[in-house]
Amino acid sequence: MDYLGIDHVEFYVGDARQAAFVLCSAFGFRLLGQGGPETGLPRQRSLLVGQGECRVLLTSGLVPDHPAVEYVSRHGDGVAAIALGTRDARAAYAASVAGGATGIEAPRVYAGGGATVVRATVSAFGDVVHRLVERDGDGGEFLPGVIAMLDVPPPAQPEPLLAVDHVAVCLEAGTLDATAKHYRTAFGFDVIFEEYIEVADQGMFSQVVQSPGGGATLTLIEPDASRSPGQIDDFLAWHAGPGVQHVALSCRDIVSAVDDLTARGVGFAPTPESYYTLLDGRLGVPDLPVGRLRPRGILADRDHWGLMYQIFARSLHVRRTFFWELIERHGSRTFGTSNIPALYEAKERELAAARATSEAGLR
Hints:
Layout: E1 5-12, H1 16-27, E2 30-35, E3 44-51, E4 54-61, H2 67-75, E5 78-85, H3 89-98, E6 103-112, E7 115-125, E8 128-137, E9 148-149, E10 161-170, H4 176-187, E11 190-199, E12 202-210, E13 217-223, H5 231-239, E14 243-251, H6 254-263, H7 274-277, H8 279-283, H9 290-293, E15 299-302, E16 307-312, E17 323-330, H10 339-362
Parallel strand pairs: 1-4, 5-8, 10-13, 14-17
Antiparallel strand pairs: 1-5, 2-3, 2-9, 3-4, 6-7, 7-8, 10-14, 11-12, 12-13, 15-16, 16-17
């Protein structure tokens, strides 16, 4: 079974309106739709925001026993569902359950406004699920009859963020191989990249799993328990278990996107000057001049197919768990061998102060 891509991600949050305000004001998303008691969702409030082809559903529970309330109580705000687009949600559901996934919600049809959506839900990892989504008809509808779409005019100019490029997942030590196997057997994904990452005296194992057509990609990471604890251990402690560490958004122009988001108040993980000293010698001359990358902290790398440019935004979450990544690909299909350590070194520098504060509070 192939998948068309990541249809959307759903966050469970304490306050959907506040989370939507942050994404719209800081990252330039637009409010596209909403659902709640008045649309047939009596136990929750959901707001749909989007930019380019990226869709983010923000859901807050309105009653104590709603799954979103329970999730936020345990993990804080975070990604609860990664939706995979498919041409046949019923077949995808049957195949994933036959391959070992737990069926959570059987295929259900939502119709209206000239669109039909079939949606099913299966287990993924930790408390995160995969929604399997089949769409037909009016592409302006999201979940007919449940999410009421707003009359939003098209953007006046091209939006800087295009779509979800990949999702990064932090796993508990010793569970990486089993999780990668789950994606192979339940979803038909392939392992396309493996790497051992060292940051100072920390170590982490990584495998990248991807759907056969390349539409959906997840980076799976576990800490090396034989090395000193680091940011993956921090995530697992602060998030209370495995979960989504970051979502990478593809850009049409990462330099302009960083400038735009910086002007909106978004901070980015810093990169030391020494990173750029040997960049030309390592990559050849990149097609984005180093003089444009250096002042913004943007990293450059390549795989067998081309170049990529990446940067991490600083976390806006109170637990310092989830954050966003920006990525612009110039022909690359996977990941380079230099950016991942550099990205995690940048995030390690950012989290060092938070870790010290947390440890001081325990004394």
